[in-house]
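Hey forum,

I'm writing up a methods section and want to include a predicted complex as supplementary material. The small molecule is S-adenosylmethionine. I've pasted the protein sequence and the SMILES. Can someone with a working setup run it? I'll credit the forum in the acknowledgements.
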Amino acid sequence: GASGRVVGVDLVQVKNLPAGAIAIVGDILDPSVATRVQSELGGHADLVTSDLAPKLTGIAARDEARSRELIDCALAFASTMLKPGGAMVTKLFMGAQFKDIVDSFKEHFGSVEVTRTKASRPGSSELYIVARDFRKS
Ligand SMILES: C[S@@+](CC[C@H](N)C(=O)[O-])C[C@H]1O[C@@H](n2cnc3c(N)ncnc32)[C@H](O)[C@@H]1O
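Reply by user p_vandermeer:
Happy to help. Structure tokens for the complex are below, copy them as they are.
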């Protein structure tokens, strides 16, 4: 809505932002970035979304480990940002760590669903976790 506030983070500059949105150029793995997001938001968030993806090397084990690191980091980031009852939507790719990742979301949210979007390329292993009812520990 008109009074909503959106704060994004990416390693690269994001252009053409809508009104009410700002984007920080930074690394989500850098703890000072979370501090900057919190100060820009001026409070806790209703929703955290993550479309984080590493630059692929073509070495499957390495790419999967790096993707997992980014998902773990996004979840830790959301855990500090979200209001109790808040929600998170995260992209992930089907792989050996899929169940572990979903279980890690279940530790923090009352409801966790896994879904696909029509916009994903046919044959893509891209999935989305939709997690609701964040439980603040
Ligand atoms: C699949 S793209 C999505 C970009 C954007 N959401 C879009 O739709 O255009 C993945 C993005 O994750 C960003 N990224 C990868 N590692 C990151 C990190 N450690 N911190 C912040 N952003 C990162 C990349 O720069 C890239 O823009």
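Some notes you might quote in the supplement: The pocket of S-adenosylmethionine is lined by residues 9-12, 27-29, 51-54, 70 (CB under 6 Å). DSSP finds three helices and six strands in the chain.
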